[in-house]
Write a structure and sequence with these properties.
Blueprint lengths: L1 H18 L6 H12 L7 E8 L6 H20 L7 E8 L4 H14 L3 E3 L4 H14 L2 E4 L13 E3 L4 H14 L5 E7 L3 H16 L3 E8 L8 H9 L4 E4 L3 H13 L5 E4 L21 E4 L8 H14 L5 H20 L7 H12 L4 E3 L2 E6 L5 E2 L3 E6 L2 E4 L2
Helix pairs in contact: 3-11, 4-5, 6-7, 11-12
């Protein structure tokens, strides 16, 4: 009986040890923990994170990019996923602030992010790209256009770069004979605005454009543009080029109206969203032109399907930023399929595979057909121009 009780006690102790989580293979458990820490998902889904402003003055950009990406995620998941795996998508708000964007990135890393769609705006993206490079995490920004935003070899973009936008804007104005005398108002404190300004100015000379005024403002003086507008008016500018964001652009249009000054206004992708500015008289934007890779009224089937799905989900017409977010997800899908990536791979291995794949794929997106990428992360696609007509964006030739 004593021997029986002793044997029973030993058995109970052994079972208790197993129940408490002890393992006969501690080396294997340690290896698995290290693999997870190194970024291997070990799951059955691809975890894609996103970062951009969904609150604050630039919220239209981030919200649209987030919503466009979600439309693509839903479509892909419904069709069977990527390489048979579903997508988990999580988007963090950075309020267009670099420090908050880095915090958002760290939060997404804790969540298990394997690839990043972001950042949406330039200054946060310039900060975050240093973090993703250190982690060797693949990054695809929908709309951060500064050269520095994709300065590392792990980073690519969907949108045009600042130099590309400035060049294309000057060429469009010159080739379409929109004006001879041109004024420029730009934000000298912002890398996005000043970068576009520099390349626009250089190309304007090649296009025979006469720049009659070059007027700067800064983040500390972006509410009153009457001095800049008066110099443009006095110089006889028939067209005013506005390479900055929609909030400031809405003030420029309102103040020009008050001065009885009505030149052509020509902007870039940052102006997309001006029709949503609270308390802004959108009739003042009638006739405003801007460069953008996306026009919601385009007749092609892909664009019309995207617009219909977006309107059904969110009750509004998508902007270029929504289209950029949408194309980001489909670009990741194409690169993942090309590289044969699976979710159990480490973040670094996924990044290395996608870096190679990005230079070999061609994507037909809603922001361009046959989009390709060079090793420096820049896309190749044709720019488009839209004009605001009857309160909506309308494609131009």
């Amino acid at each position: 009986m004593k021997k029986f009780l002793s044997l029973a006690l030993v058995t109970v102790m052994a079972l208790s040890a197993v129940a408490c989580g002890q393992s006969s293979e501690p080396e294997n458990n340690a290896a698995e923990a290290e693999e997870t820490a190194d970024g291997a998902a070990g799951g059955e889904t691809f975890k894609i994170g996103g970062i951009g402003p969904t609150t604050g003055g630039a919220a239209v950009y981030g919200t649209n990019a987030m919503n466009g990406a979600q439309i693509a995620v839903d479509e892909i998941n419904a069709a069977g996923g990527i390489n048979g795996y579903q997508i988990d998508f999580k988007f963090e708000d950075d309020e267009h602030d670099a420090e908050k964007s880095v915090n958002a990135y760290n939060s997404l890393k804790d969540w298990g992010m394997q690839m990043l769609v972001g950042c949406v705006t330039t200054t946060p993206c310039v900060a975050v790209v240093q973090e993703t490079a250190a982690d060797n995490m693949f990054q695809l920004t929908p709309s951060a256009s500064a050269v520095e935003a994709i300065s590392e070899d792990n980073a690519f973009r969907i949108c045009f770069s600042d130099p590309n936008q400035g060049l294309a804007a000057a060429q469009y104005i010159g080739e379409h004979d929109l004006a001879e005398n041109v004024a420029i108002i730009y934000d000298s404190s912002d890398v996005y605005s000043s970068g576009i300004y520099e390349t626009f100015k250089a190309e304007a000379a090649n296009q025979g454009l006469n720049i009659v005024a070059e007027e700067a403002f800064t983040a500390d003086s972006k509410t009153d543009f009457t001095v800049q507008l008066q110099k443009a008016k006095d110089g006889g500018a028939e067209l005013v080029f506005l390479p900055f964001y929609y909030t400031e652009a809405s003030l420029v249009l309102s103040q020009a109206k008050a001065m009885d000054y009505s030149p052509l206004f020509f902007g870039v992708d940052g102006m997309d969203g001006i029709l949503t500015v609270e308390n802004f008289d959108t009739s003042l934007a009638e006739g405003v032109m801007l460069l953008t890779p996306f026009a919601a009224d385009s007749a092609d089937e892909a664009t019309q399907n995207f617009v219909a799905n977006y309107e059904a989900a969110y009750g509004e017409v998508p902007t270029q930023f929504a289209a950029d977010g949408y194309d980001c997800i489909y670009t990741i899908k194409a690169a993942v399929e090309q590289a044969g990536v699976t979710p159990d791979m480490s973040v670094s291995d996924i990044c290395d595979a996608l870096k190679d794949a990005m230079t070999t794929i061609s994507v037909d997106g809603v922001t361009g057909e046959g989009i390709t990428w060079s090793a420096d992360g820049e896309p190749s696609k044709a720019p488009k121009a839209v004009v605001i007509k009857d309160g909506a964006y309308s494609a131009m030739d």
